[in-house]
Amino acid sequence: MTLRLLEFVVGDNEASDLLPVRSPVLLRAHGARRGFWTVLDEGPVEQCLALLLELADGTWTAQHVTADAGAENGRTEDGEALAHHDGWVYVFGSHFGSKAGPLRPRRAFVARFREQDAAHGPLPVQVVRNRFRLHRAVNDALLKAPFVPLPPGDQVRSRFIGATVARGTARSKGWVERLAADDLPLNVEAVAFTPAGTALLGLRFPVTADGDPILVELAGVPQLFAPRPTWPEALGGYVLTGVTPPGALAGFRAMAPTADGGYAAVIGSIDALGKGSVLLADHPAGGEVTSRHVRFRLPGQGHRITGELVADLAPFHHVEGLAELDGSRYYVTDEDHRVALWVG
C-alpha cells in the first residue's frame, strides 16, 4: 500500500487519534470539504484539540482549536482517544503515567464537546476527572474476566502501583483507596461507542498472557456529565485474537466503528522504544512490534474476537489514529514536534 504524507505543525506537539468531523456547520466555517479531529499529547485537554482540514481547493491545513474547560482548565493531561456518541465528541485520557511511572491522576479523565460549537468562538469542553474510579472498575472487571491478563513485572508493579499509592498516601489523597497492590496499570489508547451506547476501551496495556490486545466494555459514560452524575460500570472484557505477531505482545493504538457495524483498529507495541519505558524493561517482547490495521466484529456471545488483518503498516511502530473515509484510509503517526497524516 502506497501512502502519501501530509505534515503539519500544530502547537509544536505530536498527535493522538484521528476522528472524522461530522458537523457540516464546522466544515463550512473553515471552507473545508472534509476534516479530522486530533488531540495533541501531554498538555491539558482544552489546549490540545486540533483540526486537520482538507479545503475546497484540495489543500490541507491544520487549526489549533481554542477551547475552555471552565473550572477544569489546566487540570488534565495526555488525552489519547476520541469517539463520537449521540452528538458529542468524547475525549479519554490515557489513565496511565510517564514511561517510568507513577500513574498520574490528571490523566484519569473523560471530556466531551459538541463539534459545531468550534465553528465560532472558544469551544466549551466538559471535563470529568474520575480519580482512579475507572481504573478500579476496569481492574475489577479484569479480575473476573475469562482470560488471563499478562502479570505485570516487578518494576511495573513497583513504579506504577506502589509508587502511586506511596505518593497519594503522603499527600492524603482519598483516591488511594481505589488502588490495590495487585492492580494492573491501564493505558487507554482507543475508544469507540457501540450502537447500544456502551464504550469499548482499547487498552495498550495490559494485554493477555498470550500477548493479545484487550477491550473492556463500559456502560454509563454519558451519565458522567449528568446533573447528578454516576460512575461508569465495566461490563466485561474481550480478547482480540489472530492479529498479534508470533511471540510478541500487542495492544490497541486506535479504533473506529465501520459502516458495516464492525470496527477497524490499529494494534502495535505496548510502549515506545528508546524512551526509558519500564513496561518494556519488564516485557521486552512488546517493543519491536510494528503497527497493523485490523478489523473485527463483536461476538454474539463469549469473549473471544477473531480479527482480520487489513494492512501491515511496517515499518511504522507508532500509528496512533486511523479513519476509513470516502474510499481512502487515513493514519496519523506519533512524531516529535509535528503532526504526520498519511493517506492511502
Number of strands: 23
Any idea what the shape is? globular
Spatial separation of the terminal alpha carbons: 7 Å
* Percent range for β-strand residues: 35-45%
**SSE run:** EEHEEEEEEEEEHHEEEEEEHEEEEEE
Q: Please work out how many helical segments DSSP would assign.
A: 4
Largest sheet: 5 strands, mixed
Uncertain runs are none
Give the radius of gyration.
Answer: 19 Å
Structural class: mainly beta
Secondary structure: helix percent = 10-25%
- Widest β-sheet, arrangement of strands: 12-13-14-15-19
| Average pLDDT for all residues | 96
Descriptive key words:
4-stranded antiparallel beta sheet; single chain; 344 residues; mainly beta; 4 helices; 23 strands; 12% helix; 5-stranded mixed beta sheet
Topology at a glance:
Elements: E1 4-8, E2 15-20, H1 24-29, E3 32-40, E4 49-55, E5 60-64, E6 67-68, E7 79-85, E8 88-93, E9 109-113, E10 123-124, E11 126-129, H2 133-144, H3 154-170, E12 187-193, E13 199-205, E14 214-219, E15 233-241, E16 251-257, E17 263-268, H4 278-282, E18 292-296, E19 304-306, E20 308-312, E21 319-325, E22 328-335, E23 338-343
Description:
The relative contact order is 0.16. The strands form 6 sheets. A 5-stranded mixed β-sheet has the order 12-13-14-15-19, covered by helices on one side. Strands 1-23-22-21 form a 4-stranded antiparallel β-sheet, with no helix packed on it. 12% of the residues lie in helices and 39% in strands. The protein contains 4 helices and 23 strands. The radius of gyration is 19 Å and the shape is globular. The longest helix has 17 residues, at 154-170. β21 and β22 (328-335) form a beta hairpin. The protein has helices spanning 24-29, 133-144, 154-170, 278-282, and strands spanning 4-8, 15-20, 32-40, 49-55, 60-64, 67-68, 79-85, 88-93, 109-113, 123-124, 126-129, 187-193, 199-205, 214-219, 233-241, 251-257, 263-268, 292-296, 304-306, 308-312, 319-325, 328-335, 338-343. It is mainly β and 344 residues long.
